[in-house]
Amino acid sequence: MITLRNIEKVYRTDTVQTQALNQVNLDIEKKEFVSIMGPSGCGKSTLLNIMGLLDNPTSGLVTISDKNTTKLNDKELARFRNKQIGFIFQSYHLINDLNVIDNVELPLLYRSTSAKQRRDLAKSALEKVGLSNRLRHFPSQLSGGQKQRVAIARAIVGNPEIILADEPTGNLDSAMGNEIMNILLQLNNTEDTTIVMVTHDESMAKKTHRLIRLFDGSQVQ
Amino acid sequence: MIRHLFKMIWNKKKQNMLLMVEMLASFMVVFAVFTLLVYNYQNYRREMGFESDNVWVINFNNSENIASLDTILMFREAIRNQLKSMPEIKAVSYSSANVPFSMSTHNGTLDHNKQGISSVNRYTGEDSYDDVLDLELKEGRWFTKADFGLKDNAVVINSALRERLFGTGPAVGQYIGDVSGDERRNKIVGVVKDTKFKGDFQAVEYDMFHRADTGSYRYLSQLIVKVIPGASTDFEGRLHKTMSSAIKNANVEIEHLSEKRVVRNNLSLVPMIILLIVAGFLIINVALGLFGVLWYNISKRRGEIGLRRAVGASGVSISKQLVGEALVLSTLSLIIGSFFAIQFPLLHLFDLPSGVYIMAWLLSLLFIYLLVMLCAFYPGRQAAAINPAVALHEE
Amino acid sequence: MLKNYFKIAIAVLRRRKFFTFISLFGISFTLTILIVLAAFINNIARSAYPDKKRDRSLYVMLMDQRSEKNGRNSGPPSFYFLDHYVGSMKTPEKISIASMFNATNTYINNKKLVINVKYTNDAFWDVMEFDFVEGKPYITQQIKNADKVTVITRDTRDSYFGEGVSAVGKYIETDNETYRVIGVVEDVPVTMLYAYGDMYLPYTLSKRDYLSKELNSNYTAVLLAKSAADLDQMKSEYQDVVSKVPVKGKEFDKLYSHADTYVASYTRILLGDGMESGIGKMFLILSLVAFLFMLLPTINLVNINTSRIMERSSEIGVRKAFGASSGTLVLQFITENIILTFLGGIIGLLLSWGIIFYINQSNLIPNIHLTIDFGVVFLGVLCCLVFGFLSGVYPAWRMSRLHVVTALKAN
Is the pTM of this model over 0.80? Predict the structure, then answer.
């Protein structure tokens, strides 16, 4: 599903050169639920951004669904992200000016879907995360766990094959974290969605199929 | 500290670029407004140099069909005497059409010692012209009957022209203007104080007064009269009747200089007021904009401010820093703005005295600094009130 | 999609009320000033009472005689020129000849009245469509006889005879002459130079010598064509006539006079030179002034919008992550901005409507009646679009270049 070959990422400023990723090779199969762990600053988020086509590697090859992504331009990248990938962030990144259902509809705005269809899809996505009763609420009226469930609904509404989650439980207490984790596991089970999750939490990582450890930009296991 | 401020600004030069452009544009607007205001105020403060109260103008734009010059002269003399005999009238003089506060100007280039002085106003009046207008003589005398029939024409000039031509040397008795062939020469008999015939906001101009000679009566179609204070409308009606029956084929119109003065001043005042309204609106707009952007910047820098507080900056020093940053930023724009502003006196654009530009420049600097300080003060206070613990926790 | 933009635009506006206020203030006031100014210009240029046929009229106000040596003598042409030469033209249906207004005095009941007198021919009453309150205009025969008859305005009647008192048949005295009133018309604003006067008299009563063969004097003319299509032909016929006028004496050797459209007849005096009508120059100056005037508010808006947009970097990041391309985002922000400017535009229109209403009510400028017409509104809408576009494009461009990862981190 996702293939990374010889990925390097180097950040350059005038004086310092930082190697964020060093020769990372990774194969993630369809329907797999993979977690990535490692100390702060080891390059987890960078790796996730590269998988999500939010960032370009300095060198190396990213193939997603058998498609080489290196040659895509801004517009094609945007389309690709829209269709194939759903994102979940640690700090939710909901748009404060939109209510819950409008937030969930967001990915559908960037493809040709009718308003009615958008609404229906968003509702069913919210049902899956158990939030059908909060459609008109604004993000500021929700708890952290609820916000993250909205974010998950937004990630799955476009029916992507891959979900990339950057510490989805990082800002939540363990009860809420477990709740979110259960939703993700269920998604993986019933919808066959491939999930890659960055986490600090060993107990969460244990629930996934495979654990990848990063240290100083290199893959340890 | 200043170095630190510059560093802060330099590191955010992209963001600050727009703010600087805005300050620069505001400075140019303010500079233009102040230039106009200073210029007009300086002119306004000068004395009028003559008295316009109780002076009336009688216009009789006619085309008399009287052929001989002698007849015209006699006829004019008769009118003059008739007016003089009225007890309400203190003094009478025929005048060229450019009476005070009228839209009419007679000016031209004066060639003197082969040197052209442009825009010298020419006024024509009689021996009593200075009595009607209360002109103040600084040297010599006004025209008298004795000036009639001499070899030279008698002229009176104003102080500005006197200084331009003769500096501190003697002026009365001097000839003015180059002549060719057998043209009569103009000899100065007196110097009057500078007058503001073109309204309260007139700049100093060069004036030259000619004595009405027999030839000029063909085209003199204005009379100026000084009346006693409180002359009634009733009297004005009688005066009008007298004039209309004396000059059969003329439209006669009587105007009061005090009213003409208001109209003439409005010509300068109305554009100034419109400009002030527009500029005022622009400045309010800019002030709100600056305030908004500075305020927003502070809310974005809560973390930084929290950190500064944590490492020991006091609230006052934080707010000082923010106001200081805004001032340094405005200084940079003002330096660029001053470069443009200085071109006006250097290139002699618009022909205004350099002093006006310098004054306007100083006022504009002051104004922009005050404006920026005012706009930065409240956001600065807000920043000082930020609780470092909360701000740092947010990060 | 548009509905979504609209929704978020409103939400953003409501959240940052202070910024919204600044933006709306700037936009609405700038527009108000532009619209009021446009209404003034429009008022001067548009057909209006009593000069209602401007689309098929040409105007003559300038006779410009020149020579290298003696300089120039320029001013309104003489009655003789307009009657004798221009009067021979074939294309015009009617030619109205009228003097500039002359101020005269009259004294009644211890009160002074300034009455501006205009001398006209009879065609004046056909070309100008005056509304008669009572009576009728003078006719050819009365002009020939030099009958002492006059048409006065309502204002003049009210101040001379008393408010609302019928004046026809009564006598009015000004400038020591007495005239019989035969008609009263509605007032004309002083901006209508070709028609303005307080009192209209047959030109044969003019105290100036209307028979004098000088070319420069004190008269203006309006040439009325049968249809707007004839205007060009009328212009060229006028030039033919002018070219046949003998340049009198040795004083001047060149002679310029033009039959112009209404606005051009003014710009020719202010900005024209010889054959050049100066109307292009006027448009250039007006657009330059408008541009300079809009520059500062625009920079201000760009500044505010940049702040506004950068504040939403998290939103931008999310949108990008979920598949919005840079182009889509730029479009979104420009749309938002145009919505904002339109809101400001509506407020601006309301404000200018209020100001214009006030100007009309207060009689600040006598007899003037400003209107916001379709053209002015269209101009306002156009200004909004330009304004919204200009002030939105730079911030949107900067925002669209924001890298997704940084945008998301910025929160």
Answer: no
